[in-house]
Every structure is written in C-alpha cells, then in structure tokens.
Design brief:
heterodimer, A: mainly beta, six-stranded mixed sheet, disordered N terminus, B: mainly alpha, two-stranded antiparallel ribbon
Chain lengths: 171, 334
C-alpha cells in the first residue's frame, strides 16, 4: 500500500470544490484585481440555457464577465445530473464555453454555486479551487485545463436568479 | 354462521393490513455484525430508506434550496467533507467539523458535544431547523417544506409507500424518520482491517495503536466509545479547553466538562480530513500528535500508524451507488 493510498488521498475533483471564505471588512470592493480577473468588473447580462437546445445562445468567451440570469432549477434540463443538483427552489442553468487557445482557465463565480464543466457530456476534473481575492465580490474560483473547443458549464444550487461569472485564462 | 362471518372479517382485515405493511427490511451485514437498534415507532422498510436517501440528497430541505444533508456529509469522504467547518445557508458561519456518518446507527452519542442527541430522528432537526448554528435554515419554514415536497408527484408516492396508512405524512417528523432510516443503512465494516488484509506497515501501525492506548477511547469494532450505554462516557478532552468552543460544558454547565468532545470513529478516517471538532488539524499526523502521549511519536511510527488508520477505509462503502446521489426518481432517469 502506498502512503497516498494509506491516507486515502483523493484526486482534486470537482467534488472537492471548497466553500468560499467569509469576506473581511473592506473599504471598497473589486479594486486592484489581478490582471486575469480584470474582466470581472464589467458584466454583460446573459441568460443561461434551461436545456441543451439553448446552449448556442448562452456562450461565454474568455476574459468577459457575464451577469448570468439563471432559471429555477425545477425548469432546467441539464445535460447530465450535476453532482450537487440543488433543490427545486434553487437556481441553475447552462452556458457554452468557447475556448480557442489551450491553457488553464479559471471560472470565477459571485456565489458558492456548484459548477461542472462538461466535454462530450462528461464532467472534467478541476485542478484547483480557491476563494476570490480579499475585498472582491468573487466568491469562488475553480481551475480547469482546457483544449480548444466547446464545453458546457453547468451551474447548480445557486440561491439567486442572478450570478456573475467570469471565464479567464490563467497567465 | 356468525363464526364464519367473523373469520371472513379477520381474513379481510389481515389482507388489508398486509397490503399496507411495508416489506420487511433485510440487513446486508458481514458475518458477526449485528443489526443496529431500530426504534419501534420507525421500523425499517425499503420504501422508507429510498425516500430517506432522496431527502438526504435534496437541497429543498434548506431555505434557499442550496444545501442538502450531503453537502456536509459527502459519501466519497466517508460521509463528511473537506471544510474545517461548513457555512450554513446564506453564508451563516459554521461552528464545528461535520462528523462522519458511517455506523452512526450503532452510537448512543451522536454529536461532538451534545449528549442529549441520542436519536437519529431527533438529530435531523439540528441541521434542518437549528439556529446554533444555522445550517439549512428551515426554522419556521416547516409548512414551506411540506409545500415543496407535496408539489412533487414522485415524493407523494414515495411518502405514501414509506408511511402506509398515514395520509398526512409529508411533514418534518416523517422527513426525519425517513432520513434516519437511510442513515441506519450507512454501515461500514468492509475495510482491509475487517478482511484481515493488513499489509506490513499497517500491522506495525496496529501495534503502535495498541501501545499508545488509542483504543481506550477509539475502542472496539466501531473505533469509538460513543456506543456506550452512558453517552457521557464518550466525551473526552485531549487539549486544554478554550473560549472559542466550551464543548460538553455548554450543555452540562459543569466547568470540568469544558473542552470535552465526543470520540469520533476512526473508520474511513483517512478520507475525512480535516480533523478534530473544529477541523483545525489538517492531517492525520497533526491530529494524532495533539493527543496526550503522542506528541513525540517518530516519523516511522507515524507512517505505520497512519497506514493502519488507512486500512480502516472501506472503499465499497464510499463508492456504493445505493448510498449515493440517486440517479433515478420513481424509476425515471434524472
């Protein structure tokens, strides 16, 4: 038995998404964000798809934040069952991610909602999780290594109908 | 003629009762393991367990639909999770590390520091409607919970099957009964230790475990003393009490109980970091060294001891689809 096996070390999967840390008192929010998060402060409204058929009209491109509009979970037909589906009264939905350049991409959220990134209908394994920077409205960031192509971002178990989201390539 | 009529009536009554009686529950336990105690007013049935499983994984048990029992008690970590403490709904601050649920049905002391919690049915209310801390935030929302669940045709059918003959069963007490029934099926006795398949390091670690006296509290097949008839005997102090969390004394009011917390089971412990009541120990080694008599343990002994504790991991238990997020609802794929 290896030490890793003995300790039951787990791969860093989507199932290990950390809950965001509580924010300290701040004089101002979202000032001096790192360069890769600079797009966070300009958020364009975008309605999430409630079914796979609506994905083409819900595309997120790197570097440009959206103010996501999420339907109630009870009306959403996900591509695949989210690991944390959320109750009927929560909010969720889907977006298409368009990647032109290979790299590690972060998906930043304004809440602690659950996310799955799918390729060909199957969830990818994330490589890092972190809360947003101090004194920012980013609550949670999850990294995924992505090749050029199209992916599905599933958002689930969000309390509100509105959710800021940023897809950004790590430097 | 009267006798014949009475016999027919009795036979009809028997058929009627049989039609409403849930099928007898069959425990799937390894040889030598007795079934856990089951309260007389909440008998096990397959329908009730399946309902409880669905409820366990349903975010609608929280006020904003975002938190289900499984958020803090995730299967792949032995029915606990990776946060030191888990915030409740709407960012409510968490208080203590989520406890593992494996073999919880065998325990008489259920929580870190409240010996009054002795029934799984009653304990469900702590996360559901509790306010210290707020977890699922459903206090005062009991009617809303009934509304949500009743709106779902599959839930209506499942409650009817789980609680036959009880027409108004979609309420908090029956939710608690169903979840408790599911929790009683979280039985974990399938580790390498149970199979007698310890490797050399784990065998040496078992010796270290005995030498250090770990089994004084992490005792028996459950690796905890929380199954004792007197639940107060399961609360111990491994470090000086601190003001952040008074532990058992918060309930008993006794100064000497300050800093006492219930002995957690060590089954699946390798999956359940971080450790201790506040999640302040990130690794098994750190948690072990914070116990009396273990601070100076050497690296080689620690490696052996953690190998032994790793041999208490029951991979079948943490991957069994029957205990995981339901993939179907009333027979329909989700």
């Amino acid at each position: 038995m290896t030490i890793a096996a003995a300790l039951g070390l787990l791969p860093l999967a989507a199932g290990a998404q950390e809950m965001p840390a509580a924010k300290a008192n701040c004089a101002a929010m979202d000032q001096n964000l790192p360069a890769d998060l600079a797009g966070w402060t300009v958020q364009t409204p975008l309605a999430a798809a409630a079914s796979p058929a609506g994905l083409a009209k819900a595309t997120i491109t790197p570097g440009k934040a959206i103010a996501g509009d999420l339907p109630q979970t009870s009306t959403v037909k996900f591509v695949t069952q989210p690991e944390r589906p959320g109750g009927s009264v929560s909010h969720g939905g889907m977006f298409e991610l368009k990647i032109d350049k290979a790299g590690t991409y972060l998906i930043a959220l304004g809440s602690g909602a659950w996310i799955d990134v799918l390729k060909d209908g199957k969830p990818l394994t994330s490589t890092a999780h972190s809360p947003g920077p101090a004194c920012s409205t980013l609550r949670k960031m999850v990294d995924f290594p992505l090749e050029p192509g199209r992916y599905v971002l599933q958002v689930s178990a969000n309390a509100d109908a509105k959710l800021p989201i940023l897809l950004a390539r790590r430097p | 003629m009267k006798a014949l009529a009475a016999s027919l009536a009795l036979a009809a009554a028997a058929v009627f009762l049989a039609a409403f009686a849930p099928p007898q529950w069959r425990w799937d336990l390894p040889p030598g393991v007795a079934p856990p105690p089951v309260p007389a007013d909440n008998p096990m049935s397959a329908a009730k367990v399946e309902l409880g499983r669905r409820l366990f994984y349903d975010g609608d048990l929280s006020v904003d639909g975002t938190v289900g029992c499984f958020n803090c008690h995730g299967q792949h970590r032995g029915f606990t999770e990776s946060n030191a403490v888990h915030p409740g709904v709407k960012g409510a601050p968490g208080r203590r590390n989520a406890m593992m649920l494996g073999n919880v049905a065998y325990l008489s002391a259920l929580t870190w520091a409240d010996p009054r919690q002795r029934s799984l049915e009653a304990q469900v209310l702590t996360p559901l409607t509790g306010e210290h801390p707020v977890e699922m935030g459903m206090k005062g929302q009991e009617a809303e919970l009934t509304r949500r669940l009743s709106a779902d045709a599959c839930y209506r059918r499942q409650f009817a099957e789980a609680f036959p003959g009880e027409p108004a069963a979609i309420d908090v007490p029956h939710v608690a009964k169903a979840i408790a029934a599911f929790e009683r099926t979280l039985v974990s006795f399938g580790s390498a230790y149970d199979r007698g398949a310890l490797d050399e390091a784990a065998k040496r670690g078992q010796g270290v475990f005995a030498t250090l006296g770990c089994a004084a509290c992490h005792k028996g097949r459950l690796f905890t003393d929380a199954d004792a008839a007197d639940p107060l005997s399961a609360f111990h102090r491994i470090e000086p009490a601190n003001a952040r969390d008074p532990g058992l004394s918060e309930i008993t009011g006794k100064t000497d109980d300050a800093g006492r917390f219930r002995t957690p089971s060590l089954r699946n412990v390798a999956l359940s970091s971080p450790y201790l009541h506040d999640g302040s120990a990130k690794t098994l080694a750190e948690a072990i060294r914070r116990h009396d008599g273990a601070a100076g343990i050497g690296d080689a002994e620690m490696a052996d001891l953690t190998a032994f504790l790793g041999a208490l991991t029951d991979q079948t238990f943490v991957t069994d689809p029957k205990l995981g997020l339901p993939k179907t609802r009333c027979g329909k794929p989700l």
